[in-house]
Amino acid sequence: MSSPLFQLALYFSLALCVAGVLWRTARWFRIRIGPDARAVVPSRRVAAAIRGAASALLGPRVLHILGAFALDALLLRRLFAIAKLRWFAHLLVLVGFTLLLLMHALAPLVTAELFPAYQPTLNPFLFLRNLFGAMVVVGVALLLLARRRAQAVPGEARQPLAATFVAILGLVLVSGFLLEAHKIASPRAFDRMVDQFAGATDPAQLAPLRALWASEFGVAFPELKAPIDPVLVEQGRHLHRDACASCHAKPASAFVSYPLARAMAPVAGLLDAGRADAWLLHLHVFACLFGLASLPFTRFFHAVASPLGLLVDATARHRAASAAKVAVEARASRRALALDACVHCGLCDRDCSVAPLARHLENPGLLPSHKLVATGALVAGRLLPSRRDGDALPDAALRAADGAYHCTDCGRCTRHCPVGLDLADLWEAGRGELAAAGLAPPAQWVQARPAVAWAEALDPGRGRPAVVGQEAAFAPLSSDRRSFSRCVQCQTCTNVCPVVAHSMGCDHGIDLTPQKVMNLLRLGLRDLTLGSRMVWDCATCYQCQENCPEGVRVTDIMCELRALAVQRLGSVRSVEEPS
């Protein structure tokens, strides 16, 4: 296909792809995540990246770095250790798409140079083209299945144009298989081949060849009906051996396209009349070019960013081995790179320590994949749009803040990331951004108002609906009177509490002692406890629970009240934000 329209589309797609890659790459040195990155100008970050690449690639450990990169980027070593089914699926997509690109799309530049007798209609190229395409289809299907089965909570982290590239890739593969199948079954394609290589030939002389191609090559000639004379087929085989065998093999080895061709045989004449060969070819080619042009603008840009992220990770591990401190310039650029390098596999969600809490709170914002999306929205200005005085905080921002501050910093997401992202550092920087934007940790915004004010905000009489429903399942200890009814108000818990002892004589001491919290629960005034300083200052030392003569689980109840407070007080926080 060498029409001027194709040439123009090719150059335009290449230019748009290159411009998009440069634009996305420039963002790695402009995006500032974390208070420590704000003072670092892009020029310093670019210089730090150049110095780091030079020291790594020209240093004594370059072979170790390149070896680790090859194992991680090409053989997907990290993914194999975590999820072998996904490793197999990713390998199918990676190998299949790469070989399809080299052997088919770039055949004149690659395959024809390696194999001088190359013809796309000969074996093994017929078989391999179908094999590589089928590998990509099966790999994508396995990845979608594995992601759905491993999803930690309902509600996948959404990305702009999330499914665009998958749809484009599917269109490329389907149109390619259909185009090849139509060429196999098309009488028009056969006649064009004969005119091109045999010139004007008497139709009677071509009858044996047509009989052979109808019976063994799948061409759907409307005038040839089964059974076809075997003598005529044998005569055609001699003609084929002399004139066609050097360029055409039996297409049965095209195990995807050939069955499609047999299925399309009844309508082959209609497709020929509608010039299906032309519009299928244009659809296939322009889908490829559209995919090339759109790659930098979809989340599948990780095909470029992830290998680079793995190389950066291998270099960072080299620095750790040599006890070299990572400069803030390098950390700032690595955080920005992580936003593009994430492959959205969801494996970090599966291993997250707070995944059970995310299900209980019905807030997927606690999960790493959602936190990464929220971090990107935060630095892009989408999470916290400019607010006028008195405007409520967006619910998405409040849920993202809850997710950021509930993180336990266990590091599992970083250890299990298949592309080596330093997510722990990213979360720490994101919390700094949230705090700078006025979204403080729950302990701060809850204690900014008296417990009585929070209880009044939760009062159904003031227009707030009473929250019941699933509370008993989420907060069983504070919902079941048997958990605290045995409290005799002996004050043992108060006497052994280090928080109470530390607050004595302070201007901002605790408002309730532990036994008073238990007493409010006994009186059915749980809402009064949710915003109390005692609940949020509790050190979870378990002294109260271990020393309680009645065996009341005081500390466990305190922890439960704290989690319940985030869920319930957060729903009224955006409406009645304290001044």
Question: What can you tell me about this protein's structure?
Answer:
The protein is an all-alpha fold and 579 residues long. The chain has 33 helices and no strands. α10 crosses α11 (230-243). The longest helix has 26 residues, at 125-150. It is elongated and about 110 Å long. Mean pLDDT is 84; it is low at 575-579.
**How would you name the oligomeric state of the polypeptide chains in this document?**
single chain
First and last CA, distance = 67 Å
| Proportion of residues in helical segments | 55-70%
Global outline: elongated
Topology (elements, then pairings):
Elements: H1 4-27, H2 42-57, H3 62-73, H4 77-82, H5 84-105, H6 111-114, H7 125-150, H8 164-185, H9 187-198, H10 203-216, H11 230-243, H12 257-264, H13 268-273, H14 276-294, H15 302-321, H16 328-341, H17 347-350, H18 355-361, H19 368-379, H20 395-406, H21 412-415, H22 423-436, H23 442-447, H24 451-457, H25 471-474, H26 476-479, H27 492-496, H28 498-503, H29 514-522, H30 527-530, H31 533-537, H32 543-547, H33 554-573
List keywords for this structure.
mainly alpha, 579 residues, disordered C terminus, 33 helices
